[in-house]
């Protein structure tokens, strides 16, 4: 266990990619390999629905239509998760920020409290993502793992999330990885690229 001072400014990486690109799977492995904490923004929102939060119906409506939940809701959940977690100084935030509103509010509310590291973008073909989500839908129990919602999630990713990715690319804060390969290959490439990026 770490002892945190009031000056604690945890390290934060964002992991982005389309639905089914492998963010969750890769973050689970990264959290073990790098001894850090994986926070899935989508999972925190799904937990908030189960916990009957005051934003339950807003979150449910957004998730089921592939839209992005208003950022104050998501950021509040992430803020709590980061500052309640005491086992690591480093956090991998999976699936956030998804649009400009997310990014701008994160900067306004959180930037001064954390140390931003980089963004990992898992680039994956649509065919692979459709195949993986179709497979996952058999067991995930997720209300958004169906072809209609998936189409909408692709549109949101293309119209909104891609702009965020370009923003980080222009600032040389982006690490881009081909997500069509095997789990082990993708993991290896992420670890390698992180090492290279942060040694520069
Ligand atoms: N979502 C959101 N803001 C976030 C993360 C997720 O609004 O910061 C919502 C959005 O509707 C998205 C859904 O939660 O389509 C599922 O996100 P998740 O990242 O779990 O799905 P994945 O992309 O990993 O399949
Ligand atoms: Mg996920």
UniProtKB/TrEMBL annotation:
Q: Name one GO cellular component term.
A: nucleus
> What is an annotated GO biological process for this record, any one?
UDP biosynthetic process
Q: Which GO terms describe its molecular function?
A: ATP binding; UMP kinase activity
As for family, the record states: Belongs to the adenylate kinase family.
According to UniProt, the reaction catalysed is: UMP + ATP = UDP + ADP
Annotated organism of origin: Paramecium tetraurelia
Where on the tree of life does the source sit, at the highest rank? Answer: Eukaryota
- Using the record, list the residue span of the signal peptide; answer none if the entry has no such feature: none
From the Swiss-Prot or TrEMBL record, give the protein name: Uncharacterized protein
* Family matches, as CDD domains: ADK
User: Which Pfam families does the protein's record reference?
Assistant: ADK
């Amino acid at each position: 266990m770490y002892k945190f001072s009031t000056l604690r400014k945890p390290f934060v990486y964002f992991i982005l990619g389309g639905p089914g690109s492998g963010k969750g799977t890769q973050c689970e492995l990264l959290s073990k390999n790098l001894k850090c904490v994986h926070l899935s923004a989508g999972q925190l929102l799904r937990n908030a629905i189960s916990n009957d939060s005051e934003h339950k119906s807003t979150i449910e409506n957004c998730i089921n239509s592939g839209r992005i939940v208003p950022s104050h809701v998501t950021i509040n959940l992430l803020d709590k998760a980061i500052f309640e977690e005491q086992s690591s100084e480093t956090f991998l935030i999976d699936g956030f920020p998804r649009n400009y509103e997310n990014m701008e509010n994160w900067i306004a509310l959180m930037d001064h409290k954390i140390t931003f590291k980089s963004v990992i973008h898992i680039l994956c073909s649509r065919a692979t993502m459709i195949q993986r989500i179709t497979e996952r839908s058999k067991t995930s129990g997720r209300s958004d793992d169906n072809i209609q919602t998936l189409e909408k999630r692709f549109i949101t990713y293309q119209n909104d999330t891609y702009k965020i990715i370009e923003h980080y690319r222009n600032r040389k804060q982006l690490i881009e990885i081909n997500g069509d390969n095997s789990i082990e290959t993708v993991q290896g490439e992420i670890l390698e690229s992180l090492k290279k990026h942060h040694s520069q």
